Amino acid sequence: MFKANPDYLQLRGSYLFSNIAKKVAAYKEAHPDTPIIRLGIGDVTQPLSKSVIAALQKAVEEQAHAETFRGYTPDLGYDFLREAISRVDFGRRGVSISPDEIFISDGAKSDSGNIQEIFSKDCRVAVCDPVYPVYVDTNVMAGRAGEYDEKTGTWSNIIYMPCLAENDFAPQLPTEIPDIIYLCFPNNPTGATVSKEQLQKWVDFANEHKAVIIYDAAYEAYITEDDIPHSIYECDGAKTCSIEIRSFSKNAGFTGVRLGYTVVPKELKDASGVSMRDLWARRHGTKFNGAPYIQQRAGEAVYSDQGQKEIRELVSYYMENARMIREGLTAAGFTCSGGVNSPYIWLKTPDGMTSWEFFDYLLEKGHVVGTPGSGFGPSGEGYFRLTAFGSHENTKAAIERFKHLN
Ligand code: PLP
Fold it and tell me: 18: pLDDT confidence band, cut at 50, 70 and 90?
């Protein structure tokens, strides 16, 4: 008789956003005429840009002719896209990443979940708390997390790095030494960022202790302040200790199109000198058959001058929402952070409510959906995440509803 993977059975309940979707569906069924505004899941709402649509259409048309039809794509990605990424995302910031260190994928969720596969099962993992749930859950699935403690909501083998208001929601260097450190800046869910000087300390720490940093820069395009690094490779020595993950979802609106990439530098070697780049290439080649040609052409269009202009406009649209939420809610007496270099606003729940109490209260009284902070980890308790990815109209309406909650 076959058996299910016991590591998977350790997972608690369903994925955070599936839980929220179920709750909202139940509320909608009970109140079919109540218009709900969703500022919960970090999904974009604005259409794809003109350059991206033109590239998609051209690539689709090519598939109608034998001379230009494409079948399987190169498993690591087309050179045209890898070269554009190398030139624009890194070259323009003075960082040298060669195209063959860039691995094209179907998005940052897969990459941030899969990357742990190339590390030994006994590696100790450190995560920020609160955290994007994929990092912890995929290490649970891999049997690396240990035992779950119901009382604290933590796993025995995971090192949690609390991100608290007194440190502007930035993690502190851990006292226990991890092997793998997940960092995400601008952060989901808190919207926090770190300066280049602060990030350099993490890179130095990782190099000193032979740890690897998995740096999720999915929200890099939302950085507005000067001293914030856009890539971990802006720090000295990062290539010997860091993997960086990027997404086209939040900068170019590809949440439904699907495209992302991961950088694994050639200099990144394990304790016995194994090239992690070669290992990721081997893994990618075995388990992934390449991102679709059509999507990669759309990705390439993002790097044209016009494409860059259009994504800046898209990001500005959402950042205007972020500003409205931050200012509107602060004026209404809420304590908010984030929303300056990030599309996320991190709200302190009022009157000592728990995150889920506030979720229910906001849905019931304001018909607005957000994300309970405790869903991201124990230090998220007492907080609530709102996203700036709605339309201006819905965002304004949601702010009005917050103002009239009582
Ligand atoms: N990484 C972080 C930190 C995210 O918040 C998200 C999505 O919300 C992702 C990765 C997933 O990105 P993608 O759509 O490219 O899979």
Answer: confident
